[in-house]
Design brief:
Strand order of the largest sheet of chain A: 1-9-8-3-4
Structural class of chain B: mainly beta
Mean pLDDT of chain B: 93
Number of helices of chain B: 0
Structural class of chain A: mainly beta
Strand content of chain B: over 45%
Oligomer: heterodimer
Mean pLDDT of chain A: 93
Number of strands of chain A: 9
Order of helices and strands of chain A: EEEEEEEEE
Distance between the termini of chain B: 30 Å
Number of strands of chain B: 11
Chain lengths: 109, 111
C-alpha cells in the first residue's frame, strides 16, 4: 500500500469548511484513496473514497489531483461533532486498511 | 449501529489468562479484519479472513489467533495475556474490499 502524509493537527471554526490535505505520491493506478475518521475511542467511521474522479456524498467531498499524488477531504460546514482524527488511506481492492497517524481536527466555536 | 457487532464491549482479566473476542460482520460481508489500538499507538492491523480462510496477516503475536466460522462470524483469541495487551480491539467487515465498516470495539484491560 502506498504511504500517505497528513498534517498532525488542524483547527477549524464551526460553520466553516474544513480542508484536510493528504499526500500519496507513490499511489498505484489501481489503488483507491479512502478517508476515515475516529471520534474519541469509537470505531473508525467511513467517510468517502475515490479512485480518480472527485467524489461527494452527504458527509464530505473528496478532491483528487489529476496526477493522483494528493487529495483533499472537504467538510463543507464543520460542526463540533466533526472533531476527530481523520485518516487518509491508500489501498488496493480487497486489501487491508493501513492506518497512519492521521490529522487531528479540532473544530472550535 | 454500523451493522458490525462486537462482543463483549468491555473485558477485564488478569495476566496469564485467555480471552475470546467475537465479531459478527455486516450481513453479506465475507471479509473480516481485526485491528488493535493501544493507548499510545494507532490502529494496527492484525489479521484478515475471507469466507473462512485466512487472507492476510499483520503484526499479530503468536499468542493471538483468529478464525472465521461458516456463518462468517469471527473470533479473536488472546492467550497468556500481558499488561501490554490492554487495548481496544476493532473488527471490520467488507463485502468485496470496497467499503470497510467497523464495529464499536472491545476494550480489553489486563490487570
Amino acid at each position: 500500500d502506498a504511504k500517505t502524509t497528513q498534517p498532525p493537527s488542524m483547527d477549524c471554526a464551526e460553520g466553516r469548511a474544513a480542508n484536510l490535505p493528504c499526500n500519496h505520491s507513490t499511489i498505484s493506478g489501481n489503488e483507491y484513496v479512502y478517508w476515515y475518521r475516529q471520534i474519541h475511542s469509537q470505531g473508525p467511521q467511513y467517510i468517502i473514497h475515490g479512485l480518480k474522479n472527485n467524489e461527494t456524498n452527504e458527509m464530505a467531498s473528496l478532491i483528487i489531483t489529476e496526477d493522483r499524488k494528493s487529495s483533499t477531504l472537504i467538510l463543507p460546514h464543520a460542526t463540533l461533532r466533526d472533531t476527530a482524527v481523520y485518516y487518509c488511506i491508500v489501498t488496493g481492492t480487497a486489501s487491508k486498511l493501513t492506518f497512519g497517524t492521521g490529522t487531528r481536527l479540532q473544530v472550535t466555536l | 449501529d454500523s451493522g458490525v457487532t462486537q462482543t463483549p464491549k468491555h473485558l477485564i482479566t488478569a495476566t496469564g489468562q485467555r480471552v475470546t473476542l467475537r465479531c459478527s460482520p455486516r450481513s453479506g460481508d465475507l471479509s473480516v479484519y481485526w485491528y488493535q489500538q493501544s493507548l499510545d499507538q494507532g490502529l494496527q492491523f492484525l489479521i484478515q479472513y475471507y469466507n473462512g480462510e485466512e487472507r492476510a496477516k499483520g503484526n499479530i503475536l503468536e499468542r493471538f489467533s483468529a478464525q472465521q466460522f461458516p456463518d462468517l462470524h469471527s473470533e479473536l483469541n488472546l492467550s497468556s495475556l500481558e499488561l501490554g495487551d490492554s487495548a481496544l480491539y476493532f473488527c471490520a467487515s467488507s463485502v468485496g474490499g470496497v467499503g470497510y465498516t467497523f464495529g464499536s470495539g472491545t476494550r480489553l484491560t489486563v490487570v
